């Protein structure tokens, strides 16, 4: 029996979903409700790439070798330390007659589900990748299930740019949803206070998109938090935040002080987009009672977040950004097209890679 969520592709251990599996079946023959993609490029998620780079002290050959080993061993790209993967772009080779995804052979697509649950084979040894960037040119194939999500790549954008945006498109979509609710609730209550939003890691991919999304959703005051001067200058030039502050997100007091000083009070909504561990307590401390913290980093310890909030007697709602919100791809691409500051940051990042 072919499962819409890919249970038939789980090799071990039996009875778990593909994301939780240690190893997946990568055979190229597809079931009637599957789609096979000819892979062109992977985008490793930031937390995974950072962990690999730090582990191997920036040795690109060693990073490439470990990524190859992970994929060959597990039948998917899932970093065993961070548990995260990324996503990919490629061309539809074959779509099963009962696939509900609506994809056709020859379409170039981006997968909007994680590589941690996507059967994947690499056939070129990653020969075109130096191991020093999140984007990984490659050859091979991948399998999508009936419950997978994919988007046809837009013709007006460079595929690498689209890949970078779609990799994090869940972050701005959820940020927009949460901020919009705060704005609507205050308007309904006759509360004239502006909704204040802090984005930790505001100069990064998900961070810059989240700042833009917060602004469009009606946030009255936004602050971007970055760790170094170069990122501060880039974010100021992009014009995406009302204020940009320097702080180490791993220092709870420094982060809270920076946000509160910039906004005049703790944030109503704090969005965590950094790719390093240890930022949970600072995010909670920087958020007002009754506020919301959205965690979009795969480096987040959710136990630390929950216990930290309890220990601080913080009345905050904490959300896990799961990467999927209906309409997330369209929203993120719209922000890229409509916000020059966002596009500039993304293009500079790609140029640096």
Automatic annotation (TrEMBL):
Pfam families: KDD_N. Residues 8-154 form the L-erythro-3,5-diaminohexanoate dehydrogenase N-terminal domain. SUPFAM superfamilies: NAD(P)-binding Rossmann-fold domains (SSF51735). InterPro entries: KDD_N, NAD(P)-bd_dom_sf. This is L-erythro-3,5-diaminohexanoate dehydrogenase. The lineage of its organism: Bacteria, Bacillati, Actinomycetota, Actinomycetes, Micromonosporales.
């Amino acid at each position: 029996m072919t499962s819409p969520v890919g249970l038939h592709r789980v090799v071990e251990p039996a009875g778990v979903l593909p994301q939780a599996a240690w190893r997946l079946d990568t055979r190229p023959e597809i079931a009637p409700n599957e789609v096979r993609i000819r892979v062109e490029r992977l985008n490793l998620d930031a937390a995974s790439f950072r962990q690999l780079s730090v582990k191997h002290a920036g040795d690109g050959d060693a990073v490439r070798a470990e990524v190859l080993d992970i994929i060959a061993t597990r039948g998917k790209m899932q970093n065993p330390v961070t548990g995260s993967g990324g996503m990919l772009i490629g061309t539809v080779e074959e779509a099963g007659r009962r696939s509900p995804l609506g994809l056709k052979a020859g379409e170039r697509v981006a997968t909007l589900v994680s590589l941690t649950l996507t059967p994947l084979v690499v056939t070129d040894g990653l020969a075109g990748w130096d191991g020093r960037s999140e984007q990984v040119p490659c050859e091979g194939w991948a399998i999508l299930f009936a419950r997978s999500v994919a988007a046809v790549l837009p013709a007006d954008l460079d595929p690498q740019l689209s890949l970078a945006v779609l990799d994090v498109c869940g972050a701005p979509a959820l940020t927009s949803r949460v901020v919009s609710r705060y704005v609507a609730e205050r308007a309904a209550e006759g509360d004239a206070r502006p909704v204040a939003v802090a984005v930790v890691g505001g100069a990064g991919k998900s961070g810059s998109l989240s700042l833009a999304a917060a602004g469009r959703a009606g946030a009255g005051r936004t602050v971007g938090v970055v760790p170094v001067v170069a990122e501060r200058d880039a974010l100021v030039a992009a014009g995406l935040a009302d204020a940009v502050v320097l702080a180490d997100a791993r220092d709870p007091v420094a982060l809270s002080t920076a946000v509160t000083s910039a906004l005049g009070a703790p944030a109503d909504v704090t969005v965590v987009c950094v790719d390093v561990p240890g930022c949970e307590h600072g995010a909670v401390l920087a958020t007002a009672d009754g506020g919301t913290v959205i965690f979009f980093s795969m480096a987040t310890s959710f136990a630390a977040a929950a216990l930290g909030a309890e220990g601080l007697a913080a009345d905050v709602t904490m959300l896990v950004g799961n990467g999927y919100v209906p309409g997330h791809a369209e929203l993120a691409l719209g922000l890229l097209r409509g916000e020059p500051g966002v596009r500039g940051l993304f293009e500079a990042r790609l140029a640096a890679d």
